Amino acid sequence: MTWExxxxxxxxxxxxxxxxxxxxxxxxxxxxxEACGRVVLAMRAAGDDPPDRxxxxxxxxxxxxxxxxxxxxxxxxxxxxxxDDQ
Length: 86
Known about the structure:
- This protein is α+β, with helices and mostly antiparallel strands.
- The chain has helices at 3-14, 30-45; strands at 53-56, 62-66, 73-77.
- A 3-stranded antiparallel beta sheet has the order 1-2-3.
């Protein structure tokens, strides 16, 4: 996967509608999309390797996954909880 592929995957995720998975999952939140985009742009600028996968979570988040000889690394972005949401 290239950094361009990653950005395309994030863009595609931004177009998902409620119930995209056939089970009622919400689409990624604006906050998750923006946070994921910031992480991707910073890592690309730093010369880091792109993730192996970009997946959409079932609760409005995104996951960037690096899998290789080292232990897996996951960067999750989802809905921020406010104190009155608890």
